[in-house]
Amino acid sequence: MNHFTLRFAVAVLAPLAILQPNIGHCAPAAAASSAEVRMDHISVTETGKGSPVILIPGLSSPRAVWDGVAPDLARSHRVILVQVNGFAGDDAGANLKPGVLDGIVGDLHTYIAKHKLAGAPVVGHSMGGLVGLMLAKAQPGDVGKLMIVDSLPWYGMLFGPGATVDTVKPQAAAMRDRFTASYGKPNPAANQAMAARFALRPDAQAKVAGWMGQTDARVSAEAMYEDMITDLRGDMGKIATPITMLYPTSAALPKAVAEPLYTAAYKDAPHATLVEVPDSAHFIMLDQPAVFLKTLTAFVG
Q1: Domain for residue 271, yes or no?
Q2: How far apart are the C-alpha atoms of 247 and 277, rounded to whole Å?
Q3: What contacts 22, CB < 8 A, 6 or more positions away?
Q4: Model confidence pTM above 0.70
């Protein structure tokens, strides 16, 4: 793995180095939310009225990652805010066992069916983007269109063109075990250093570090492992759902490197549109909030 690929893989795949309480920066959303509905693998709150849109956060992130856009969306939309059990200080529930990603997808489908949300736009960041793809594959009618915020159909492609699930799995398992062992061992400085890889703005870095510190390391470790060994590249041609994929570029990740990577990742998707967001890192919604809100609003319609 070359130097850039290694840095990029660390930045995208490991947002959880040491995951114990640190500094919380979860600003409350302006719009009032419904009572939380708890399921085995996720919890859900809703805000606003109108046509629905479902927002899924990424690894170690709470639903508060959408606080910058949820109040605006709620003026004309029914906003469904998902949170993974074990993230943001929540009880881990069933997520202490393998099958976290499949469990999230199953709970989402159950909620969508029960509340008649089939065909709603779905937005997923990072691991949430992969979950969105998994849902579109397993339950095509659930997802009317999908916005993916900086995610890949298989992160193993960062390990080189010859990488396979089998070759990546031992490394993924070692990372999972190492992060699981960090449970109960706070290290705020490590959280802050890791957060600096995921966001460019100091205020965004503080939020990300705080969220990481509140997350159950055991849940994030298992979810990360499952993410790393889930390869949907062979399914992309079968996913007819329209996809809008936002990817960041910056001095650390120039367009000349990022564009070919993401283009190759989504080349087989029949209805995928890639959108560059300059001067941003992994948390696009925090680094470029105005651009993200404008793009999201246009996507939702």
Answers
A1: yes
A2: 6
A3: 186, 188, 191, 209, 210, 212, 213, 214
A4: yes
